[in-house]
Amino acid sequence: MLQTPEKTVLMVYPGLLPRYDQMDLLTRLREQVGRPGGIPGLWMLIASDAQTTLPVIDGKAVPVIGPAEWARIPDGWLRNVHRSNAS
User: Fold this and answer.
1) I want to staple 63 with a disulfide (CB 3.0 to 4.6 A). Which of 2, 27, 46, 72 is the partner?
2) What values do phi and psi take at 60, rounded to 5?
3) Where are the domains of the chain?
């Protein structure tokens, strides 16, 4: 299912990957993104804190090539501050 979707995939509970030493699955999926017959897109939502600068799951690094492959969502955005009434 993950390797043949017709739409972009959103992974929301990737916590079992490091537990069962399967982080290389993310590398294999990343290599298929945007390729003919591959995945149109892959997003992964990871809960984290400010203790690490790179994305990690259960203390194991997520295999990213560079900063263009991940982004930290600011706390203000999560609290919807950008839509609040600024009065």
Assistant:
1) 27
2) -105, 135
3) 9-83
